Amino acid sequence: MPHPAHALAALLAAALLPATGCAVGQLIGGMAASAERAGSRIVKPKYEGLEGSSFAVVVAADRGVQADQPDIVPLMTREITRRLSDNCGASGVVPADDVLKFQYQRPGWIAMSPGDLARTLGVQRLVFVELQDFALSDPGNPYIWAGSAVATVRVLEADGRLKDDFAFREPLRVGFPDQEGLGPMQIPAETVQAALAKRIIDRVAWLFYEHEEANIIKY
Q: Distance from first CA to last CA of the chain, Å, rounded?
């Protein structure tokens, strides 16, 4: 017959094993979740048709947006053009400053059909970014930041079957800051503007090429 003390020890060990296994499992699971949050992944493009083709980026913004943020259209045009030119394997690109000059000299360009615009710029792909909203705060409340940028990205394939219809369309929306209740005393307006611009530019550009993206991303 086993000694009573030995029997008690065996019972305690048996009782503790499941609890220990559970704790270890929870620890491993927590470590895996933490690694997942801190890690990143490769994201494929949603549109790959710029490869081997010439393109131009045209950004159009509401008049109210242009009045409040006069630098946002040139900034987006230049940065999106640069990133697509660097990453998409295109055969040619209309320089951003040439596109901006064209828009300035021909204010009626907005009434052109997508196909005519692409043909005038001499490209096979027209990346058209319609910036519908870019605001740092809600109307009437400049004391709390609630940055929001809304855009729709379209691509015309000028050499495709549909000469005047867009072959690709993607709506986008980003915000900044992520924490509520922050105002000019905590974050300067320039910081909010720069962060919001970077986020919408990221989202537009990332549609067109493979990129690395954080697993837990707030925009």
A: 68
Q: Are strands 40-43 and 54-61 parallel, antiparallel or unpaired?
A: unpaired
CB contact at 8 A, 155 and 49: yes
Kindly state the helix (H) or strand (E) to which residue 8 belongs, with its residue range.
Answer: helix 4-38
Q: Look up residue 111 and give its two tokens.
A: 């009434």
Q: Nearest-5° angle of CA 99, CA 105, CA 111? A: 80
Is residue 214 helix, strand or coil? Answer: strand
* Angle subtended at Cα 78 by Cα 114 and Cα 93, rounded to the nearest 5 degrees: 55
pTM: 0.83
Domains present along the chain, CATH in parentheses? 43-214 (3.40.50.10610)
pLDDT at position 11, please?
42
